[in-house]
Design brief:
globular, single chain
Amino acid sequence: MEIFNDFSIKEIVTCFMVLFAVIDIIGSVPIIVSLQQKFGKIEAERATITAGLIMLVFLFVGNKILKFIGVDVNSFAIAGAFVIFIIALEMILGIEINKTSEARSASIVPIAFPLVAGAGTLTTTLSLKAEFHDINIIFGIILNTIFVYLVLKSANWLEKKIGDATLAILQKVFGIILLAISIKLFTANFAELVKTYINF
């Protein structure tokens, strides 16, 4: 197949590392453990497959979908920044803004989206498409979803190993980091919107 002619280990490693840094599943461990305690169950397979499919679909039709509904990438990223901001506030302040009393599982929301395949990840995927070949980005996505699956599958073990006191501290720390990421995502994309729509 012609698509494999562009296969490159170097590009795969680069795509994997970039997406790995943006997804930051290791940094999300406190959130995952917290959700595990809250819902009692995380369907690792369902969350992983959903997140992987979202990233793959967005890789090929992301721009078309956003253009079709009249939304640009920067506006999409800003919307995602607000979602991440709310999650961060919940972690830092220990409050519940998003009411989830009727939910039975956190597998799709917020784990698959926006924790794994969030606005930052999806916009990064579109950025990679401009620089790397599709086949290598696909492999980068697959490798990341495998890693995400391993972390989610270990949620029970992580919950037992991480005590309540340690979890509380980690939640505050990573909540602040998540807050910083949301602000950075907002400011960077807001600046691009200003450049695009406002002429000084």
